[in-house]
Amino acid sequence: xxxxxxxxxxxxxxxxxxxxxxxxxxxxxxxxxxxxxxxxxxxxxxxxxxxxxxxxxxxxxxxxxxxxxxxxxxxxxxxxxxxxxxxxxxxxxxxxxxxxxxxxxxxxxxxxxxxxxxxxxxxxxxxxxxxxxxxxxxxxxxxxxxxxxxxxxxxxxxxxxxxxxxxxxxxxxxxxxxxxxxxxxxxxxxxxxxxxxxxxxxxxxxxxxxxxxxxxxxxxxxxxxxxxxxxxxxxxxxxxxxxxxxxxxxxxxxxxxxxxxxxxxxxxxxxxxxxxxxxxxxxxxxxxxxxxxxxxxxxxxxxxxxxxxxxxxxxxxxxxxxxxxxxxxxxxxxxxxxxxxxxxxxxxxxxxxxxxxxxxxxxxxxxxxxxxxxxxxxxxxxxxxxxxxxxxxxxxxxxxxxxxxxxxxxxxxx
Length: 414
Description:
This protein has 414 residues and is of the alpha+beta class. It has 15 helices and 10 strands. It has 2 domains: 2-207, no CATH class; 227-411, Nucleotide cyclase, GGDEF domain (Alpha-Beta Plaits), CATH 3.30.70.1230.
């Protein structure tokens, strides 16, 4: 018993050292219900035992002490905001007071098993401070119950006669009272748990939706399953860069909110096209937009899907130009080939692509013509049977590398 008390005291001291956070509202409500009901029952015990005569008054010492200690600790709690002390004292009083009363009244039979009220202590600890911290309270309850059982005959030797009607009332109160209180607090806890689980499920859905807005579905699923090995080689991918022409000139004279609103209008429509053609938006960089086909899931028509989106971009820009009164044009560059794809970052992670294919797609946009769709030779070879292109002069890139770009002229067949 000494060891168990030491464990409980160690728990109380640890709560003090850890800068115990404000208790959840539910824990305060549960503890408040237990304290209030136990106080009402204590008043009933004091009244009934004192009414039997002076010889029975000492039996009411335990409930008297419970009320005094409980409400003194309550005043201390409100004065110093030390909820952990109040919780510890209440759980301790809920545990030991019923056993002491049973011993003073004269054992199990005479008290009609009044010690059953002590079960409110470990159950209350379970609901208020959690599973692990409730174990010492439950162990102490078992120990006190064992002592009561073993020494019951000694307690009965000092029993004063309790009227049969009062024993019957005690029996009903002890059984029904504890059952009703336990069911009440457990129902309250369960109802709040269900609300919390519903709220948690809603938040999980929101986070999943947000994750899918940031990452491809297959990559998001791997991360949810704690599989962080997202790097993968893709042998056949088409990448498109779209960049606004003369962005500085267009945005001059516009407020910050107007500039952001214009870009949001353009890129939102691009997002709709990305979803329409089953492509993967990689990122936006200022007034540039990057999208890819064939990642993270391979597809044979990656180049065709990208070019279809590029063609519709022209219509989108015409609509936005009319609505904003700005002549908005874009350079579009496309390239096809192998890439490495994966997630980088920890707190602000992103799905990105790397490799020469990405760099060349960017150069196709950089050296492109306003309002035109420019593709690399690799993309041209994939689409030449369905689209007509015009060959341009070779472009010399850094490192003395020369590449041959092609500009889309018309659709041959769909």
